[in-house]
Design goal:
There is one protein chain. By secondary structure, the protein is mostly beta strands. It has one domain: Pnp Oxidase, Chain A, CATH 2.30.110. It is 13% helix and 39% strand. The chain has 2 helices and 6 strands. The longest helix is centred in the first third of the chain and has 8 residues.
């Protein structure tokens, strides 16, 4: 799965996340036909963990993830070059856009643990 909130990889999407600085909403893309999507459809409660182990820093976003069906939203996140994965373009049935709205954030920084509810 690709994390579309990574500014180094998707600088053109940075502005889409400005209104989500406090709620930490994140989007991923993957193949609709993947095992991950089948598991999510059965149970949409997930966690996504990100860390910088050399800095002793990490964050875990927990909450409900959903498959985005809105064609306008899917188009807004579509990236040049993805047609090599999804030959049908933004309308390819195998192009899945997933939205995670975390309800709990936990993590650590320099051996100190933290927890908060985004909002």
């Amino acid at each position: 799965m690709l994390n579309l909130r990574r500014p180094g990889d998707y600088s053109g999407l940075v502005s889409r996340f400005r209104e989500h600085e406090k709620d930490l909403m994140i989007f991923f893309t993957t193949n609709t036909s993947s095992e991950k999507v089948r598991q999510i459809m059965k149970n949409p409660l997930v966690s996504a963990y990100f860390c910088r182990s050399r800095e002793w820093r990490g964050v875990n976003l927990s909450g409900r993830i959903e498959l985005v069906e809105d064609p306008a939203v899917k188009l807004a996140f579509w990236q040049e070059g993805w047609s090599m994965y999804y030959p049908g373009g933004v309308e390819d049935p195998d192009y899945a856009l997933l939205r995670l709205s975390p309800s709990l954030v936990t993590g650590y920084h320099k051996m100190e643990r933290y927890e908060f509810v985004p909002g």
